[in-house]
Write a structure and sequence with these properties.
The complex is a heterodimer of chains A (about 375) and B (about 260). With about 375 residues, chain A is α+β, with helices and mostly antiparallel strands. Chain A has 3 domains: about 110 residues, Acyl-CoA dehydrogenase/oxidase, N-terminal domain (Butyryl-Coa Dehydrogenase, subunit A, domain 1), CATH 1.10.540; about 110 residues, Butyryl-CoA Dehydrogenase, subunit A, domain 2 (Beta Barrel); about 140 residues, Up-down Bundle (Butyryl-CoA Dehydrogenase, subunit A, domain 3). Chain B has a single domain, classed as HUPs (Rossmann fold). Classes of the chains: A alpha+beta (about 375), B alpha/beta (about 260).
């Protein structure tokens, strides 16, 4: 048993923290207010290796480990949940499945520019009628000569429109149900592929969340990712890892709100003394700190298991469930402890509370996590 | 082209406090950082390397074994090689002894074109080590460099003055000390961090590795002794005089008389 981070992991934290303080924190409120995708920072994150953390060097990545990746998303999210999820969706949901299931040609063509941060990735599984019931895919892909022809609509796609490379799921053989789903790589700009409605969201407002529309979209045969009919497994395997990223985002949001609250209660004076001198508030901080720490170890444990090649599906689900609920708990308390000021945009905690809510919903709702955890526990 | 960058690990003075009784710095629990001006020095060397991959950047520091971490950070930013001069004999050195040790290390490295150093370290604020090193090596030096450019065989630098700058043309080998206006240092990169531990090494040179005698380094070779460290009292707020020249002169004379200055 060893709970210490490696020197590399510590240094990654130091570097991302510095980057976040200088580049990310200052624009977090603005990109939330204006719903602006922070392109300039994503480009810098690419240059500094934050967009290819888990990808081997031969494919243009930094070849860091899963724990360092979780730390990166955590530190970015401490100041800005939007920036955290851009990194997480790109890395876990686009880079990872191409690395894991892609052919050598696909890695050369698609993974290298993604890992270098020259291109942004996204993942399209959810449909209007296929949310938690992801097997109910209505998007279809039909083989025609040397091409696949895609038709259908995806919704709520993170990095939609901003991304260049999309991992898309579609039904290739409806008669086989779940075993008739396949995964594809679709490039932005392919005729028949367009970006639909951009969602106006409660939180993570700088992150682009859009519809993807496929109308007789023809992609080359070689863009099939993995084997035909294996798409559902690819989607579920990808989401297992993605949950570590979202759990890390939730952890970062919670830590950020806690940092802000500790600062605030030491400055804010009522009844002639800083409100942090009141034990009722000190105890609130104790509960927040305890939950944040518990969440952190669940997240790092899941990430560590993944990097060691151990099973991690249940651990990732537990990390995501607990960290996202911790993010809601801590940010709600943070607003409460800031009082009226916390409800205004003069302080960042209201934004953090709005950002926290999505972590209980996307990449599997808390209910889905409980399904995964109970299924793996009650045998 | 070979570049040597002299760096120092310093306590983060934003976090440091002075012991009111002893007058010394309280270093316990204070994070150590790469001296800010040295970061600018390293950035300038790395920017040259960006333009020409054949540029080789070596960072050198004298310090305790813990300075390894700072050197790894320099490697993670992109330096090729790191050398740590570490020996009990080097301890307690003032600028005189430090520059002597560094000069011995530079001579051991051998060929170089440019030595970059930070203007000064935020813990001692002397700004002496860079210039002393140049003197000991017998090479030209330009301090307070705010702009740097290579033009053929020449190096063109702007040397910052209080109210302007000097434009100076020098030839290699030369020592330049950097100020923060010179550039914006890059961050470490994730890949760089992993390479710094996976593929690069920090060489440790002790007294035995250098062509220098024990009595020429460390505390014994240091003529300076720190008697007291203190924060100077901040000056009071100035007064802006208003009115015509005559009125302002009258106010000034009146105020000086009142304070018994004249």
């Amino acid at each position: 048993m060893n709970f210490t981070l490696s020197k590399e992991q510590e240094m990654v934290r130091k570097m991302v923290r510095e980057f976040t303080l200088r580049e990310v924190a200052g624009i977090a409120a603005e990109i939330d207010e204006t719903e602006r995708f922070p392109k300039e920072n994503v480009e810098k994150m690419g240059r500094y290796g934050m967009m290819g953390m888990i990808v081997p060097k031969v494919y243009g990545g930094a070849e860091a480990d899963e724990v360092a990746y979780a730390i990166t998303v955590e530190e970015l999210s401490r100041a800005c949940g939007t920036t955290g999820v851009i990194c997480s969706a790109h890395t876990s949901l686009a880079c990872w499945p191409i690395l894991k299931y892609g052919t050598e040609e696909q890695k050369q063509k698609f993974l290298i520019p993604l890992a270098k941060g020259e291109k942004i990735g996204a993942f399209g599984l959810t449909e209007p009628n296929a949310g938690t019931d992801a097997a109910g895919q209505q998007t279809t892909a039909v083989a025609e000569g040397e091409e696949w022809v895609l038709n259908g609509t995806k919704i709520f796609i993170t990095n939609g429109g901003e991304a260049d490379t999309y991992v898309i799921f579609a039904m290739t053989d409806k008669s086989k149900g779940v075993k008739g789903i396949s995964a594809f790589i679709v490039e932005k700009g392919t005729p028949g592929f367009s970006i639909g409605k951009k969602e106006k969201k409660m939180g993570i407002r700088g992150s682009a969340t859009t519809e993807l529309i496929f109308e007789n979209c023809r992609i080359p045969k070689e863009n099939l990712l993995g084997q035909a009919g294996k798409g559902f497994g690819i989607a579920m395997g990808t989401l297992d890892g993605g949950r570590i990223g979202i759990a890390a985002q939730a952890l970062g949001i919670a830590q950020g709100a806690l940092d802000e609250t500790i600062k605030y209660i030491q400055q804010r004076e009522q009844f002639g003394r800083p409100i942090g001198k009141f034990q009722a508030l000190q105890f609130e901080i104790a509960d927040m700190e305890t939950r944040v720490n518990a969440a952190r170890w669940l997240v790092y444990n899941a990430a560590w298991r993944k990097s060691k090649g151990l099973s991690y599906g249940k651990e990732a689900a537990m990390a995501k469930l607990f960290a996202s609920e911790t993010a809601m708990y801590v940010t709600t308390k943070a607003v409460q402890l800031h009082g009226g000021y916390g409800y205004t945009q003069d302080y960042p905690v209201e934004r953090m509370m709005r950002d926290a809510k999505i972590t209980e919903i996307y990449e599997g709702t808390s209910e889905v996590q409980r399904m995964v955890i109970s299924a793996a526990t009650i045998k | 082209m070979k570049i040597i960058v002299c760096v120092k690990q310093v306590p983060d003075t934003n976090e440091v406090k002075i012991d009111p009784v002893k007058g010394t710095l309280i270093r316990e629990g204070v994070p150590s950082i790469l001296n800010p001006d040295d970061k600018n020095a390293l950035e300038e060397a790395l920017a040259l390397k960006d333009k020409n991959p054949e540029v080789h950047v070596t960072v050198v520091t004298m310090g305790p074994p813990q300075a390894d971490e700072m050197l790894r950070e320099c490697l993670a930013m992109g330096a090729d090689e790191a050398i740590l001069l570490s020996d009990r004999a080097f301890a307690g050195a003032d600028t005189w002894a430090t520059s002597n040790t560094l000069a011995a290390a530079v001579r051991k490295i051998g060929h170089y074109d440019i030595i970059f150093a930070g203007r000064q370290a935020i813990d001692g604020d002397t700004a002496q080590v860079g210039p002393q090193l140049a003197e000991r090596l017998g090479i030209p030096q330009v301090t307070y460099v705010q702009q740097f450019e290579i033009q053929g065989e020449d190096i063109l630098v702007q040397r910052a003055l209080e109210d302007g700058y000097e434009l100076i043309k020098v030839k290699a080998p030369v020592l330049l000390t950097a100020i923060k206006e010179l550039n914006h240092p890059r961050y470490m990169s994730v890949g760089g961090i992993y390479d710094a531990f996976r593929e690069k090494e920090v060489k440790v040179w002790t007294l035995a590795d250098l062509d220098v005698q024990k009595q020429e380094v460390g505390l014994d070779a240091s003529p300076t002794q720190v008697k007291r460290s203190f924060t100077p009292e901040p000056k009071g707020k100035g007064i802006m005089l208003k009115g015509s020249t005559k009125e302002m002169v009258e106010q000034l004379v009146g105020s000086l008389k009142q304070k018994h200055v004249i």
